[in-house]
Amino acid sequence: MINKKLIKYTSRLPLHSPWFIVILFSFLGLIGILNHSMWRDELNPWLIVRDSKSFGDLIANIHYEGHPVLWYFSLVILRKIVDNPIIMQIFHLAITVTSVAVLCLHSPFNYKQKFLFSFGFFPFYEYLLISRNYAFSMLFVFTFCTVFSSRKKTYVYLAILLGLLGNSSAYGLLVSFSLSLTLLAEFCFDSEHRQQYFNQSQKFDLFLSILIIIFCFISSVYILTPPIDSYLHGGLNNGWIVQLDIRHFLRSIGRIFGSYLLIIPAHKKWIDLIVCALITLFIVVLTLLKLSKKQIPLFFYILGTFVIFAFTYLRFIGMPRHFGHLYLVLIAALWLASYYQDSPVLLNKFSIRPNSIAFVNKWHHIALMLILYIQFGGGIYSFSRDLIVPFSASRETAQYIQTSGLNNEFIVASRDANMAPLSGYLNRKFYYPELQSMGSFTLFKKGRKDVEHDEILSQINSLLKNQDEQKRILLILNKKLNVKRNDLKIVPIKDFERSWVDNERYYLYWVDEA
To answer: Quick check: pTM over 0.85?
Structure first.
């Protein structure tokens, strides 16, 4: 009955209604996320929440992850509702659907732009199907843009959103920092806005808002700071780059290109790096000129792009989920521009003629539509690929283990970092040779050591000898076994190689004493 009513209501919606986009996105998103096979980066946080012994232990474990606490605290609440990682996927779907709904219902973009953005690579794939903390960035940035006008009366709503954004991810913190400085710049240099705020705001509103932002930023930085014994430093194991490296500089610009046009230039080919850098420069200059009549959004676009670019160059080159925040900065800057009247200050200062701005607006529109079309194509392709080729072989492997009655066997699994999906799906721990103990999630810290296959078999041999009741061991590897031992009988069971992530293909063996 509910389905019939929903179909009847949906059929009445005009195709150009923003609700049509939201409902279609929700329907396809539900299909996609229930089909998606989760990988280690999705299930490792779930396992940290599941298997941390106390709240203090949870905080200590999060320290090694390179992420603030918001996503983990959300998982704590979700586990109290349903102790199954599928609820994490449903929650993630809700975050992304809400983000798209906020954009479609409240942003100043036209219908075509909203449609293309919603089904683009980042909203329809990277921040939808892969359940991680980065989807919070879309939600809080878009909500910030929606309630931006509230700053004329109170900054508290924006401060809360900035605090949440800053505690969602390291890149969320960079965007939040940029938005905070943008608010500060407007407050300091726009006397009319400042006077209007003081006339309408409540007592202590400004003090409370600043306190919220500072507290949230400090807590985020504290959690993001890795412990001394973390040898990956939250995944940032290359240190700081303080010298000038032209190739690396162009690679970092290539991340801006990738965030807009989804192509990562080959870092070994100078011609690729230079061409992509020139195209990026062209798009950035067009955007700067487009925003030149709106100084505050212009300030945010420059600051937000520069801060993420600087982090990319100095610390971490990043993956699409990371530098996708550059794309969010572009969208947010254009959105915020709708709140401001045109100001000729910069145009007059640089003697830019009005007909030149009309020319810029035309070409910026062309560039923006090109970006949106490419993002749309990337989103449809990536979403469809995930329906056909499993992102990880984890779910198929876990289902085989369960249906074959193998889940109660003593399991040795390696490499530990790639076994988090299986531990999450099977809801149990394994013996990890890297730890020489039982475990589920992986923290890259002192006490953990990567091992080769011969060492794994040596540990299995010791386990078989030291445990009288242990007759055989189920061995799970993420690479085919490449060694043999005369004192062990090793029988292959089944291989699971259908996986987009090449190091999450699984190989099962029985191991017994010869």
So the answer is: yes
